[in-house]
Amino acid sequence: MLIFSVFKTLTDQQVTVELKNDLSITGVLKSVDQFLNIRLDNIKVLDEARHPHMMAVKNCFIRGSVVRYVQLPPESVDTQLLEDATRRESAAQTKR
Amino acid sequence: MDESTPPPPPAELSPPPVPSTVPSGSPTDFLKGVVGKRVVVRLTSGVDYRGVLSCLDGYMNIALEQTEEHVNGVVTNRYGDAFIRGNNVLYISAAEAI
Amino acid sequence: MDTSSAIQEPFDLIRLSLSERVFVKLRGDRELSGILHAYDGHMNLILSDVEETILIVDQADGAGEGQPTVNMAKRKMDMLFVRGDGVILVSPPSR
């Protein structure tokens, strides 16, 4: 839930999603859901020569399970806030 | 299938030999018994982690101390502490008497 | 309190590593070193100042002939979300 919230705060920001098949897609994060499925707009594939079939694609939906990494804009991430929220969530889970 | 009833176990025979160091019991009893002991954790990839088992949870997430990573019998890394995500675990084996 | 006996469940190890540099071993012969800022029960992670090392093992063809050559590729990323299903191991800095 915490990570989902983080991604929600990053909507309309530019991110780079790296998939488990090594495809890297940069685009504007339009939306995210609880499975961390991701919708990207204005996309650009990093290595277009290797993935020519992606050249015409302007936006996409990425299933969360195929994601390896998402590179985030560092200036939009409050690391102190993240750490506090993580401690709170872990405390809430341990109490159950 | 064999219709005859199986013969009762011969009462005069001694029970199967169980090393006194191994308590009989459930897998949970085993896991409780190895906490704090030296263990070998083998991952599905074949990599072994040898260390002292700090604790584990229901997903078999594991915390190890003084961990050595063994690949093909060769030490490839050492970690003071290590968290192993449970889905990678093939087995946990006791490396000392429990 | 801050001895290792304070660890009651594996995730405590990770919680105590928040804002510290951690080593992460991933599937696909990848390793990360980065500062840990967030995690969840899936071991999804958010790390900053990340260096990724990819081990590329060029398996020399021919059975039992010579050593496979191992190449390392490194790259840096400022702020990174790591999906938990790829995580094998997380090691905090030695205390």
UniProtKB/TrEMBL annotation, chain A:
Ranges for domain Sm come to 2-76
Q: Which InterPro entries match?
A: LSM_dom_sf, Sm, Sm_dom_euk/arc, U6_snRNA_Lsm2
> What coarse category fits the chief subcellular location reported for this protein?
nucleus
Q: One GO cellular component from the entry?
A: U4/U6 x U5 tri-snRNP complex
Please list the coiled coil stretches. Answer: none
What processes does the entry annotate via GO biological process terms?
Answer: mRNA splicing, via spliceosome
Example GO molecular function term?
RNA binding
Q: Any idea what job this protein has?
A: Component of LSm protein complexes, which are involved in RNA processing and may function in a chaperone-like manner.
Traced from the root, the source organism's taxonomic lineage reads: Eukaryota, Fungi, Dikarya, Basidiomycota, Agaricomycotina
Protein source organism = Phanerochaete sordida
What keywords is this UniProt entry annotated with? mRNA processing, mRNA splicing, Nucleus, Ribonucleoprotein, RNA-binding, Spliceosome
Q: Name one Pfam family in it.
A: LSM
Highest rank taxon of the organism: Eukaryota
Protein known as: LSM complex subunit LSm2
Q: Which family does it belong to?
A: Belongs to the snRNP Sm proteins family.
Compartment(s) where it occurs, according to its Swiss-Prot or TrEMBL record: Nucleus
Keyword Nucleus recorded: yes
UniProtKB/TrEMBL annotation, chain B:
Where does it primarily localize? Answer: cytoplasm
A GO molecular function for this record?
RNA binding
Q: Which PROSITE patterns match?
A: SM
Q: Which superkingdom, per the lineage?
A: Eukaryota
Q: Where in the cell is it found?
A: Cytoplasm; Nucleus
Q: Name one GO cellular component term.
A: sno(s)RNA-containing ribonucleoprotein complex
What keywords does the record list, in alphabetical order? Cytoplasm, mRNA processing, mRNA splicing, Nucleus, Ribonucleoprotein, RNA-binding, rRNA processing, Spliceosome, tRNA processing
SMART domains per UniProt: Sm (SM00651)
Q: Tell me the ranges covered by the Sm domain, including all copies.
A: 26-98
Pro residues compositional bias: what residue ranges? 1-20
In terms of InterPro entries, this protein maps to: Lsm6/sSmF (IPR016487), LSM_dom_sf (IPR010920), Sm (IPR047575), Sm_dom_euk/arc (IPR001163)
Pfam families referenced in this protein's UniProt entry, alphabetically? LSM (PF01423)
* UniProt cross-references to PANTHER family, sorted A to Z: SMALL NUCLEAR RIBONUCLEOPROTEIN F SNRNP-F, U6 SNRNA-ASSOCIATED SM-LIKE PROTEIN LSM6
Stated family: Belongs to the snRNP Sm proteins family. SmF/LSm6 subfamily.
Subunit structure, per the record? Component of the heptameric LSM1-LSM7 complex, which consists of LSM1, LSM2, LSM3, LSM4, LSM5, LSM6 and LSM7. Component of the heptameric LSM2-LSM8 complex, which consists of LSM2, LSM3, LSM4, LSM5, LSM6, LSM7 and LSM8. The LSm subunits form a seven-membered ring structure with a doughnut shape.
- Relate the protein's function as given in its record: Component of LSm protein complexes, which are involved in RNA processing and may function in a chaperone-like manner, facilitating the efficient association of RNA processing factors with their substrates. Component of the cytoplasmic LSM1-LSM7 complex, which is thought to be involved in mRNA degradation by activating the decapping step in the 5'-to-3' mRNA decay pathway. Component of the nuclear LSM2-LSM8 complex, which is involved in splicing of nuclear mRNAs.
This protein's name: U6 snRNA-associated Sm-like protein LSm6
Q: Which organism is it from?
A: Phanerochaete sordida
TrEMBL record, chain C:
Q: Which residues form the Sm domain?
A: 9-95
Q: Does the keyword Ribosomal protein apply?
A: no
Report whether Ribonucleoprotein shows up as a keyword of the record. Answer: yes
Write out the GO MF terms.
Answer: RNA binding
State the CDD domains in the record.
LSm3
Q: Which PROSITE patterns match?
A: SM
Q: What InterPro entries would the database entry show?
A: Lsm3, LSM_dom_sf, Sm, Sm-like_LSM3, Sm_dom_euk/arc
User: Which Pfam families does the record associate with it?
Assistant: LSM (PF01423)
What Gene Ontology cellular-component terms does the record carry?
A: spliceosomal complex; U4/U6 x U5 tri-snRNP complex; U6 snRNP
Q: In which compartments does the protein localize?
A: Nucleus
Residues folding into a coiled coil are none
Keyword tags: mRNA processing, mRNA splicing, Nucleus, Ribonucleoprotein, RNA-binding, Spliceosome
Q: What is its main location?
A: nucleus
- Quaternary data: LSm subunits form a heteromer with a doughnut shape.
Q: What does this protein do?
A: Binds specifically to the 3'-terminal U-tract of U6 snRNA.
The Swiss-Prot or TrEMBL record describes its family as follows:
Belongs to the snRNP Sm proteins family.
Name under which the protein is recorded: LSM complex subunit LSM3
What organism is this sequence from?
Phanerochaete sordida
Tell me the gene name: LSM3
